[in-house]
Amino acid sequence: xxxxxxxxxxxxxxxxxxxxxxxxxxxxxxxxxxxxxxxxxxxxxxxxxxxxxxxxxxxxxxxxxxxxxxxxxxxxxxxxxxxxxxxxxxxxxxxxxxxxxxxxxxxxxxxxxxxxxxxxxxxxxxxxxxxxxxxxxxxxxxxxxxxxxxxxxxxxxxxxxxxxxxxxxxxxxxxxxxxxxxxxxxxxxxxxxxxxxxxxxxxxxxxxxxxxxxxxxxxxxxxxxxxxxxxxxxxxxxxxxxxxxxxxxxxxxxxxxxxxxxxxxxxxxxxxxxxxxxxxxxxxxxxxxxxxxxxxxxxxxxxxxxxxxxxxxxxxxxxxxxxxxxxxxxxxxxxxxxxxxxxxxxxxxxxxxxxxxxxxxxxxxxxxxxxxxxxxxxxxxxxxxxxxxxxxxxxx
Length: 396
Fold this sequence. Notes:
By secondary structure, the protein is α+β, with helices and mostly antiparallel strands. Helix content is 28%, strand content 30%. The strands form 3 sheets. It has a 9-stranded mixed sheet with strand order 1-2-3-5-4-8-9-10-11, sandwiched between helices.
């Protein structure tokens, strides 16, 4: 069974969780697609000297897919950059970036975007880096080793150079990415590679997610981590494992954990064993918990206070509001309870009144402000989520 099929099989166990997260996205944000307007730089920078930009195209969810040709490694890499929700062109602000190996298993980008949009983590870019199965083994192992009679690996150093010296500078020039807050995310053999980067260049990234590290190709890695722990700076590390993984993988987890806690360690380490989960089944939970721990949500400086508004005044804003692209936001009420529903979802977001014209969803930076005519009837609305805004006009 191929690696992709094994991953899909494992993820089928957590499909209900993904369904719940999707429903929550609509409940909390009315459908994040309303605000996927992250702006790209109008002028693409020159590609890194040792790599060439082969192609670029729009991807789902406002993301961009790049194909880079690495001269060092002699192959192409598919890199999907998923932006946080919002329009940041004029803000002059830079955001953290999470570099997810193995293409982020196809979930790191979408989940990261969703988590930021509903306030479960800070806004961040997610960069998913993919390569064919055969090539990943070569890329993730520094020194060639024997694996069941076949010599594998040997490209680890060159892949690190591509990642750190070619890919990151290009993306940091192209997008508003903060180079001082980059995270490397790896699972299984990718987790061992991530730990290897930490042992060799702890300052290369601000944080590291080391998930289910497989040490068969580098059994001396824990010793290397122990040596660097006392001089590794302030790196933040999230170390994880599935509770039902094989005994050898559980042992690898314990060895890495002990190394990171060596005497005098300067690392900040969070350890998590996901009870009842296997090598791949905990991946969606891993993304949710790791991203939230590394980049906790930015909470509003002040809390909004709900007030009572008479039903006749609430009735003045009830109606259907249309966005420029034809989608709609429907405002309804049941007594004094107001609801917001986007046309792409069956879910309704409960609104609380801050005033007769401004409503919010508790716990989120989600605000609906109504524009009114002289007679008090609503003519349009401004919908804001995490600082990004769109306008809609009320249908007659």
